[in-house]
């Protein structure tokens, strides 16, 4: 294992570390270490196949001011999008998007994506014990990724921005495990975890494909004050065999949002084109869920507006407080859900 300092990195928070990091990441060395220090990065870092990046817990890697406004600007991205990569691991570190100095014009204008970590067309991806913070848009986006494990992912934003998803999953993602997600201080300012098999097109969803999401396990999710805990979005594509357990979240809007993106600022389908409704969900399992509102909001705790079958909810707990108006429904269901099972649901007043 070699340190980035062997490739010329300094770690003083002032020097441009991009060249040293790129040489280290793209070298033949399979294991690269980032020691404690402050590292300023001026352009995207590419991680190739069969590479493990291990960062000290006090290694602070930050996007430089104004340097991440270009097309395809990310702090981290896998190397070979076209042909695909395999066996990439990132462990540790504090990764900061410096969004206050890398702002998009609007959520959809301009060319920059505003994404911190971007992985596309990867088989075998492991990310653990990282702090992801101050991303301009999504903190971590994956598309066409299989056999992945995300463990102990911590979101800690000091500057909240729109469309600020935590983990955003696109089409053709499968065989994934997400365990130990925490978010504090208002993070994230959109979906903490989004399973978006279908989505609209914008600079932040560039190159995204509509496609299945299946065989995903999510466990141990905690958020103090997230915008929405989980979005599950299908218009046509399959989302199946999804297990979500042990989720405890304070929410400003939704606990579980299954509205198919109807109320996004740019809706991407017309209900008139789908007389039987949208959505292709099956075999979804939620267990040990606790939700409570952190601000007064007219939104229901959960909304189900997609077609689904074999949808089970077990041990669901919604804690009423002064932010939830009496008489307002906790659940909103429009589309048909076949075989919806509820067991041991409680509501504490």
Would you mind describing this structure in some detail?
This protein has 349 residues and is mainly β. It has one domain (2-348): Single-stranded right-handed beta-helix, Pectin lyase-like (Pectate Lyase C-like, 3 Solenoid). It has 1 helix and 23 strands. A 5-stranded parallel β-barrel has the order 12-13-15-16-14. The radius of gyration is 20 Å and the shape is globular.
Q: H/E order of the elements?
A: EEHEEEEEEEEEEEEEEEEEEEEE
Task: Give the low-confidence spans.
Answer: 345-349
Please give the domain count. 1
Radius of gyration: 20 Å
Instruction: Identify the CATH architecture.
Output: 3 Solenoid
Give a count of the beta strands, DSSP E runs of length 2 or more.
23
- Share of helix, binned: under 10%
Cα distance spanning the termini: 55 Å
What strand line-up does the widest sheet have? 12-13-15-16-14
**Overall form:** globular
The overall pLDDT average reads 89
What is this structure, in a nutshell?
With 349 residues, the chain is mostly beta strands.
Features:
349 residues; mainly beta; Pectate Lyase C-like; 23 strands; 2% helix; 53% strand; globular; disordered C terminus
Which secondary structure elements does this structure contain, and how are they paired or packed?
Layout: E1 2-3, E2 12-16, H1 18-25, E3 31-34, E4 37-41, E5 45-47, E6 51-55, E7 59-63, E8 74-78, E9 85-91, E10 94-96, E11 115-133, E12 140-156, E13 167-169, E14 173-184, E15 191-196, E16 213-233, E17 238-258, E18 280-293, E19 302-304, E20 308-319, E21 331-333, E22 337-343, E23 346-348
Parallel strand pairs: 1-3, 2-4, 3-6, 4-7, 5-8, 6-9, 7-10, 8-11, 9-11, 10-11, 11-12, 12-13, 12-14, 13-15, 14-16, 15-16, 16-17, 17-18, 17-19, 18-20, 19-21, 20-22, 20-23
